[in-house]
Amino acid sequence: MHDGSGRIVVQNLTKNFGPVAAVQNLSFQVEPGSVTGFLGPNGSGKTTTLRMMLGLVTPTAGWSTINGAPFHQLGNPARVVGAVLEAQGFHPTRSARDHLRVYCAAMGVPQHQADEKLNLVGLGAAGTRAAGGFSLGMKQRLALATALLGDPQVLVLDEPANGLDPEGIAWLRTFLKAFAASGRTVLISSHLLAEVEQTIDQVVIISHGQTMYYGKLDDLRNSQESRVIVQPGNPNKLVAALYEEKITNVTPLPDNKVSVVGATVQQIGDIAAKAGVALYGVQEERADLEQLFFRLTSGQYAAPGLAQQPPPGYGAAPGGYAQPVQPQGYQQQPYQQPGQQSGYTAPPPGYQQQQPMAPQQGTPPGGWGQPQQPNPWGQPQQQQPQQPQQPQQPQPVQPPQQTPPPQQTQPPQAPEPPQDQQPGQGGIGGNA
Predict the structure, then answer these.
(1) What confidence tens digit (pLDDT) does each residue in 127-143 have?
(2) 272-311: per-residue pLDDT in tens?
(3) For a tag on the chain, would you pick the N or C end, based on fewer CB atoms within 10 A?
(4) Pro residues bias: where (predicted)?
(5) Phi and psi dihedrals of 391, rounded to 5?
(6) β 154-158/81-84 pair status
(7) pTM of the full predicted structure?
(8) 178 with 188: CB under 8 angstroms?
(9) Which CA distances in Å does 54 have to 66, 150, 393?
């Protein structure tokens, strides 16, 4: 039925939901003996791809195999693939142990496997509790225990660390590494990039339903240029020595630090020693998985500025670590203002002056009054907001004060019946 290799192959996989192309010509391969991360932005097609691999969604084109065969041809697939796409599907009043025993019967697995897997995932003491009262993290553990019942060769997990506490995340990381080290295959999809980076050794990154990269994570890191942060005793002397050795990609940093690109820590140390420059700190920095992810996905569903600048930032390593965040935000703010005054620097405070003129009667009059006086922009703009203050003059006219005369005419009409004796409402009939 299958070759038992544990290999996952996805070839030209495509899925269209009406006019929406969820997955487009997606191809990658997951090898056994490794933990592979399946990464991509929201809406990139990760879950759809996993569902097609597991036979839950029919692809529009292309194919996928596990152990050399499509999922529906694996015979008893639960003995080959353990999958968790959602930590749901538990009967709320059924205990965790009984839940696993039901699956044991369906898979043809001995009943004692239920208790073994509960102990493995840390739910041994909660086996008699109803699954409906479990927290999200406990449900994740129970779902993983269900996937492990058949002793599968392949694990496919979607957001397995969702809801887990730090201790549970550390346990999951250790377990997945040990599972893969035994020659099995692990494919996990997650948005926790910092945690995934500590777990995986291969990565598949997709965006817009297409494969952007798949291979070893170390190879992806090595393809990026790193930089070395140096804290020398004499920065100018060190820079001069580096230039003499044809190392010119040097950038000054705050606190008398220097960023060097194109040289190793050993080279910089040797040059500094030869020049007689003391080094108080040397640190090599490489692009982490998050930076690599943003570069490859090009900021899908992000602001245009965020989507365009990460790639050049990584090409120039010194600017790639800080520039992708700060400059983009500040560039977008003036872009939102009127384009006619894009060459001026004063309009932004001018626009701030227009807003405080109306609420001068509020709490911030003192703080806003100071920037209005020194700016030449304030004089032409102060006349406009002063006009809305003039409409407040109609208040002394007080048309409602002219109404008291009719109010005075009404009270005399009201006292007349009491003067005729209020209890004498029947006396009114007497007057009749």
Answers:
(1) 999 999 999 889 999 99
(2) 999 999 999 999 887 777 777 787 776 544 444 443 343 3
(3) C
(4) 391-420
(5) -60, -15
(6) parallel
(7) 0.61
(8) no
(9) 9, 16, 74
Count of Cβ atoms closer than 10 Å to residue 154 Cβ: 23
Tokens of 34: 């490794």
Identify residue 386 by its one-letter amino acid code.
Q
Question: For residue range 175-203, what is the model confidence (pLDDT) as tens digits?
Answer: 999 999 999 999 999 888 888 888 898 99
Residue % of the chain over a pLDDT of 70: 68
Closest CA to 311 of 319, 177, 343: 319
Pairing mode of beta strands 20-30, 34-39: unpaired
Contact 99, 134 (CB under 8 A): no
Q: Which two tokens stand for residue 297?
A: 């996905």
Q: Name which of 430, 380, 378, 24 is nearest 211 in CA terms.
A: 24
Q: Token digits for 70? A: 């499509």
Question: What is the token pair recorded at 366?
Answer: 């003192």
Dist CA 91 CA 133 (whole Å): 10
Distance CA 115, CA 390 (A): 80
Domains of the chain: 8-221 (3.40.50.300), 227-285 (3.30.70.100), 290-324 (no CATH)
